[in-house]
Specification:
Layout lengths: L2 H7 L11 H10 L2 H4 L4 H15 L43 H4 L2 E6 L5 H19 L2 E4 L5 H9 L5 E4 L1 H10 L4 E6 L7 E6 L21 E3 L5 H13 L12 E2 L3 H10 L4 E5 H9 L8 E6 L7 E4 L2 H6 L1 H12 L6 H10 L4 E2 L7 H9 L6
Parallel strand pairs: 1-2, 1-3, 6-7, 6-8
Antiparallel strand pairs: 3-10, 4-10, 4-11, 5-8, 5-9
Helix pairs in contact: 2-4, 6-13, 6-14, 7-8
Length: about 375
């Protein structure tokens, strides 16, 4: 990949989270632990200071020569109204990283399927949780679009990525040996939802065959590579006899689920399809005007999002490190305030094991629709 192409794939202001002795020192210097983490600050800060001094740390954040690392300010954790404070990042009893641990860097990413600010909050929490458990550095690298996440994973610039069903299959096919290691409990039976602008006069329906109501309508999908916002909605439309040329003009591609809601609400499109989870979140947050947009149909279920781990991780750091990544994700629990904040932002009660066989149907549909050509 050319340097300028790589730069376009990474957002101009990526969030960089490094869980190192220096990272922890920086946290204590910004504010007391009792202010930031709700712990007994003086005792923990003193213990950390002793440990950091023993390690020879000057409290600075380690640097890397890797071309994919772009420094940027680290965002603050969610407020109490957004999610519980990130208090238990240190409840793990792992010692501060050693010199060898600092050399272990895990670069994580995710498809940009929702509001960027929400994703930044979520993956800072994930980065801190993983970094503490792994005794390693963790970098979250936001990407510009779905295709960029696939590309950067295939080139080895990302080690662990939260993919949708389709992008996960695309990335795995380009990276032999990579593994599906976990999915949320809700991803076993995921759904898309079709919505319409009220002025379009489309009434709710009860069957896939009735999706023909969108014939000759201005319609938008989400990202072109989205499973719940494009692949499966197009598949169900096809089952109802609606081909792309059956719509009014070319189908739109909003780029994200939130954008789809906004475009249909504004009347830019008469109908659209998106991730049901995002739709329900928008309803619960009252950030959609239900006098302007209405739910039309919820699709049958399918497997969707999952964590995909690059094969090079075990090659670089060993199978125990690989296993610890999976175990940490699977062990996230609502009993821990920090974990609960992560799970709330993921919209799930927990993570469960998964494997590539769960996405066989997704791959077949992707090939039928021409979205997978490998």
């Amino acid at each position: 990949m050319k340097p300028e192409e790589h730069q376009r794939n990474v957002q101009e202001t990526p969030t960089r989270v490094r869980v190192t002795a220096g990272r922890l020192a920086a946290m204590t210097s910004k504010r007391t632990f009792s202010d930031r983490f709700g712990f007994r600050g003086a005792a923990i800060a003193a213990a950390l200071a002793i440990t950091l001094a023993a390690c020879g740390s000057d409290g600075s954040v380690a640097q890397t020569d890797a071309p994919t690392t772009v420094s940027a300010p680290i965002s603050e954790p969610p407020s109490a109204t957004d999610a519980p404070p990130a208090t238990v990042t240190l409840e793990n009893t792992a010692a501060p990283p050693t010199t060898d641990a600092v050399d272990r860097v895990l670069r994580i990413g995710a498809i940009p399927d929702q509001d960027p600010e929400k994703l930044a909050r979520l993956y800072e929490l994930v980065s801190v949780r993983l970094g503490t458990a792994l005794d390693a550095e963790v970098e979250y690298m936001p990407v510009t679009d779905y295709a960029a996440a696939v590309t950067l994973f295939a080139t080895g610039d990302l080690d662990l990525v939260w993919f949708g069903g389709l992008t996960g299959v695309q990335a795995r096919l380009q990276t032999p040996g990579s593994e599906v290691i976990a999915q949320r409990d809700i991803d076993e039976r995921f759904q898309s939802v079709f919505i319409a602008n009220v002025d379009a006069g489309i009434a709710p329906i009860g069957d896939v065959a009735e999706l023909s109501v969108f014939a000759d309508r201005r319609f938008t999908f989400g990202s072109e590579s989205s499973t719940s916002g494009r692949l499966m909605p197009q598949f169900f439309l096809d089952q109802a006899g609606i081909e792309p040329d059956s719509l009014s003009g070319e189908a739109g591609f909003s780029g994200s689920h939130d954008a789809t809601v906004d475009l249909v609400e504004s009347g830019s499109f008469e109908g659209g399809a998106l991730n049901l989870q995002v739709w329900e979140r928008r309803l619960s947050e009252a950030t959609v005007d239900t006098s302007k947009v209405v739910e039309i149909f919820r699709t049958p279920t399918y497997h969707d999002y999952h964590w995909l781990l690059h094969s090079s991780v075990a090659e670089r750091y060993g199978t125990e490190f690989r296993d610890l990544i999976q175990d940490t994700i699977l062990s996230l629990s609502t009993e821990s305030p920090h974990d609960a904040a992560i799970l709330e932002l993921f919209g799930a009660a927990g993570f469960i094991p998964s494997d590539a066989s769960n996405y066989t149907d997704i791959e077949q549909i992707g090939r039928t629709l021409g979205l997978i050509t490998e």
